[in-house]
Amino acid sequence: MKRPLNLLWLQSGGCGGCTLSLIGAEGPDLITSFATAGIEVLWHPSLSVETGRSVVAIMERVTSGEVPLDILCLEGAVMRGPNGTGRFHMMAGTGRPVMDWISDLAAVAGHVVAVGSCAAFGGITAAGANHVEACGLSYDGTEPGGLLGHGFLTKSGLPVINVAGCPIHPDWLTETLHQIAAGRFDESHVDEWERPVSYTNHLVHHGCSRNEFYEFKASAERLCDLGCMMENLGCKGTQARADCNIRPWNGSGSCIDGGYPCINCTSPSFEEPGHSFTATPKVSGIPVGLPTDMPKAWFVALAALSKAATPVRLKTNATADHVAVPPHDRQKRRP
Amino acid sequence: MSRLVVGPFNRVEGDLEVKLDVSGGWVRSAEVVSPLYRGFEQILQGKLPQDALVYAPRICGICSVSQSIAAARALAEAQGLGVAANGRLAIDLIHATENVADHLTHFYLFFMPDFAREAYAGESWHQAAASRFRALSGTAAEEVLPARAQWMHMMGILAGHWPHTLGIRPGGSTRAVTANEQARMAGIVGAFRRFLERTLFADALERVANLSTADDLASWREEKPALQGDFRHFLAISEALGLDRLGRAGSLFMSYGAYHAAAGHLFRRGLWKAGCPTSLDLSLITEDTENAWYAPAERPLPPTSGETVPGDGTGKGYTWCKAPRLAGEAVEVGAIARQLVNGHPLIRDLVGSGSGNVHARVVARVLEVALVVTAMESWIRDLRPGEAFCEHGATPADGEGTGLTEAARGSLGHWLKVRNGRIANYQIIAPTTWNFSPRDRNGNPGPLELALEGAPVLAGETEPLAVQHIVRSFDPCMVCTVH
Ligand code: SF4
Ligand code: SF4
């Protein structure tokens, strides 16, 4: 029989939200998911019983090579400040910066998984002037580098796998772990930011319930309007890489179904868009940041055409918070 | 005197280290260390005010909705904006969903697994506790995780993405719920009620909500065998271990008031001081940085003019947590404080004029599950699909606002100042900042530091069990603490 894969989970400069999202995994639940993948959790800060010295002992046995580490998960940004000392996050009970523990553990790990945009790229923790010197494992925002350096490869020969998202959808991680455990995760399974293609081969725009509004450029004007949020409310669904509208959150939701725009949380440096998150920057009335793979002139021409052809139903509903004009069957009117 | 350093302290949210001076088999004094600084107050400087709704929830993944609500209320005050009636209900429902999930997560995943420890193997109750609550493999987690996930479908309907929703706005919520969704939510809450009544309480929520004295609670417990219902299971262990004598802190409790849908709060705002209710004067709140790793300040500052200038993590201080004080006094916050202030007879009886303790803290949280889930059923009924869920306003170029709410583990406040259309100052005081604060300049310990004094330490213990129960009874959220 194959021995179980050992997984160790560390948290650094983040909010714990990826773990909290993850324990909402369904079909199956998280504990069953680990079990069916054949993953043994050596330690997870929220779920495990070991505390204090026994945790440090686990980490020491791993770094010394006594216990093999198959998967290292890091949640939260690497804290390098102040002045590269790492003192903004010391590992409790050890008097040592967490960033040093991360380097030591990554060096012996079969796979390293950055859980969430903080661990991948720095994320929200790196916002503003980033005086805490937050970065990801192999990126610092969009710049290659990070704590481990961009050329870093784990013992498996793979780079750091960036399950980016703020937070992650539980399935993005559980499926990746299952693929790793089955020995079926290789370079072809990540995109150019080393994110699993299982969810980044999609755009948030795919499957969005507002697609009909998009087609006719029937735009929402205020948050909670039903129309497409690209023109006025900052929605980045046509550029953001994730399957949020195909694979709902929390049973049935998504950002857009919740009535607010996609802020592209799976991408590096999403935390500093250079404009308000809920407004679309425009140049002479035309939104910047149009769909990435469409020539601008074409987009503008098509938008003008489709705007002229917008059905009344869509035009009206686009700026309402509930369906004001329902679709109706021409053959049959209400009595 | 010997010194014990306990950490990493897990099954809490975030990072924690506890330093204990021990002699004669008990803790003489404790220092509580928050070893992570991220600097959200600095990040927010200069940002557009409305973008606080993207950054602030990301302070914390366990109570992100509470952070959103505090930010939205601070913005609403700066805008002078009212909240749509449906929006109030929707926000309360979103908030209650998160808080109840927090209580459940705390009880089953964070607090109870300690009773499954081998160190208790000699106790008559141990075997049952171990098979039920053992971390990662007990039977409870396997039942609770799916129930919790189903419960979070409320979030899917009301808020889309959790944690870190953007749907909570100053004037309401962005998701206008439809009539069929109202029906679906009633179904979700109904299903969750069945889970609670079968698994946690083995009784009707109303029975539990109406328990009014310690004696009542004891006779309720004895109605059925100890293993019928996980709450009863806890009560039996708690009695065997004397958890009501463990983890006593001060006798001053505070609540900012929770759930705003109706006129007033479901749980009211105020103080409970040595067994008496008193009113809360917000202007008496200050934060002291004397024993934290920040640039020295001449005096403790009120949050309206607070400063966050981190030092290099060495020197005189011992934590990144500031020390909030109310008129110079340390204050305990949390479900226990909410229920004392609001006047729940059971919790008032368990605490009397004295201090909180491990038993009362856990009972208050579990009791709140029953109280809040019942309230949610009526909020869902009160929703009016088709009517507005959100009012709209614009942030003024200059303005100020305070956003107060209650996260599961206690009082949360945001203080916002806007100048020239940008955030000029943003100060946050989170529940665990109150509970896990360090000593202030007068040497007064924070509530946990006080609660740990006198905790028993058995020979050879490096992570004393009593210390673990006490720390986890507060359900600390360390990422919020420093932010
Ligand atoms: S709201 Fe966003 S994701 Fe939906 S159709 Fe419009 S651009 Fe696409
Ligand atoms: S819709 Fe956009 S912002 Fe929302 S979770 Fe998906 S990628 Fe992130």
What does it look like?
The complex is a heterodimer of chains A (335) and B (483). Chain A has helices at residues 17-22, 30-37, 53-63, 98-108, 116-121, 170-181, 197-200, 211-215, 296-308, 312-318; strands spanning 5-11, 39-43, 69-75, 78-79, 90-91, 96-97, 109-115, 134-135, 139-140, 143-144, 161-163, 282-283, 286-287. Chain A is an alpha/beta fold and 335 residues long. In chain A, a hairpin with a 2-residue loop joins strand 9 (139-140) and strand 10. In chain B, 62% of the residues are buried. Helix content of chain B is 40%, strand content 14%. In chain B, helix 3 runs antiparallel to helix 4 and helix 6 (139-151) packs antiparallel against helix 8 (179-200). Chain B contains 18 helices and 13 strands. Chain B is globular. The chains are: A alpha/beta (335), B alpha+beta (483). The complex binds iron/sulfur cluster (2 copies). One iron/sulfur cluster is lined by residues 165, 204, 240, 242, 244, 254-255, 262-266 of chain A.
Cα separation of the termini of chain A: 70 Å
Radius of gyration of chain B: 22 Å
Strand order of the largest sheet of chain B: 1-2-3
State the oligomer: heterodimer
Overall residue-averaged pLDDT value of chain B: 97
Helix count of chain A, per DSSP? 10
Low-confidence stretches of chain B: none
**What is the N-to-C succession of helices and strands of chain A?**
EHHEHEEEEHEHEEEEHHHEEHH
Quick one: overall form of chain B? globular
Binned strand content of chain A: 5-15%
List all distinct small molecules, including ions and cofactors, that are bound in this structure. iron/sulfur cluster
Residue share in helix of chain B: 25-40%
How can the largest sheet of chain A be summarized? 5 strands, parallel
Number of E-state strands of chain B: 13
Overall pLDDT of chain A, averaged? 96
Percent helix of chain A: 10-25%
The N- to C-terminal Cα distance of chain B equals 34 Å
The largest interface is: A-B, 81 and 91 residues
| CA-atom Rg of chain A in angstroms | 23 Å
Model regions low in confidence, pLDDT < 50 over at least 5 residues of chain A: none
* Main sheet properties of chain B: 3 strands, antiparallel
